[in-house]
Amino acid sequence: MQNFRRIKDKLVRGVLFLAGMSVIVVLGGIFAMLFYYGMHAFSDISLSEFFLSTSWNPSAYGEPTYGILSMVVSTLFVSVGAMVIAIPIGVGAAAYISEIAKPAVRETLKPVIEILASIPSVVVGFFGIVFLGPLIADTFGLSSGLNAINGSFLLAFMSLPTIISVSEDAIHSVPEEYKAASMALGATKWYTLVKVILPAASSGIIASIMLGFGRAIGETMTVLMATGNALRMPGNLFDSVRTMTANIAIELGEVPFNTTHYYSLFAVGLMLFLMTMLVNLAAERITQHIGRHKL
């Protein structure tokens, strides 16, 4: 019996080890593919042109151009705008669900929020085209509502389930002793929430924000449908923009294989990969710093 248990334990450990390693292998394979094909582009494109030029026109009749600066700025415009909208709403909703809502309300809201996460991005994009876009155009007197702020609202909506769920779990995990000690000292429930509970849950809240930001950067279909896809440097949130993900989705299906244009799209994908990796690394460093500071 003891031998059987040892074999069973070893088997379970082996399966879990393979599951963990498979994630690393897949991630490494994706990075290797993007790096291999992306580097081919720089045999014909200078680094200065690729990173600093705002002109992307691989199909030009004259000299093709492969500058991604306008797409990088457009991606950050839309994603940061989404976070400005989603962070206060998401953290506020998480605090309400965890600390203020009655049990019946809490048990109703949590499944509804989880359902929101399952809405297909194409449906969200369609909503942006037929409702939110015309509303923005009428409100601000614009010729078109397909612009960066439209994409920001839609991405904020798509990021909210992640931010709310993870933040609510972090707030709910704060020890009851923290709340009891604050209330015993005469603090109000609002003061306890703002000054004790939220700071104690800050590492989880920051992780939720970074996950939401990563979701916003990597979203494709919604921004493809709702931001206008204008290849130019945006001046404000009311300009039409084209993000990096939208550019890959638009062009990769029609570009000839093994051309500079083809490889340059992999280089754009590599940039996206590195951007999301940096966001995750920053989140990890911040949460570790906060954890050490608490200790």
Summarize the helix and strand pattern as letters: HHEEHHHHHHHHHH
Poorly predicted runs of 5 or more residues: none
The number of strands is 2
**Beta-strand percentage?**
under 5%
The neighbouring-strand order within the major sheet is 1-2
Approximate helicity band: over 70%
Query: What is the rounded distance between the termini?
Result: 44 Å
> Quaternary arrangement of the chains shown?
single chain
Overall residue-averaged pLDDT value? 87
- Major sheet: size, sense and barrel closure? 2 strands, antiparallel
- Rounded radius of gyration (Å): 23 Å
- Judging from the principal axes of the Cα atoms, what is the shape? globular
Q: List the total number of helices.
A: 12
Structural class: mainly alpha
Topology:
Elements: H1 2-41, H2 47-52, E1 56-57, E2 65-66, H3 69-100, H4 103-116, H5 121-140, H6 148-172, H7 176-184, H8 189-200, H9 202-218, H10 221-226, H11 244-251, H12 260-294
Antiparallel strand pairs: 1-2
Helix pairs in contact: 1-12, 3-6, 3-9, 4-6, 5-6, 6-9, 7-8, 9-12, 11-12
Compact summary:
The protein has about 300 residues and is mainly α. It has twelve helices and two strands; from the N terminus they run ααββαααααααααα.
Could you explain the architecture of this structure?
- The structure is a single chain.
- With 295 residues, this protein is an all-alpha fold.
- Helix content is 76%, strand content 1%.
- It has twelve helices and two strands; from the N terminus they run ααββαααααααααα.
- A two-stranded antiparallel sheet has the order 1-2.
- A hairpin with a 7-residue loop joins strand 1 (56-57) and strand 2.
- Helix 3 runs antiparallel to helix 9 (202-218), helix 4 packs across helix 6 and helix 7 runs antiparallel to helix 8 (189-200).
- It starts with a helix and ends with a helix.
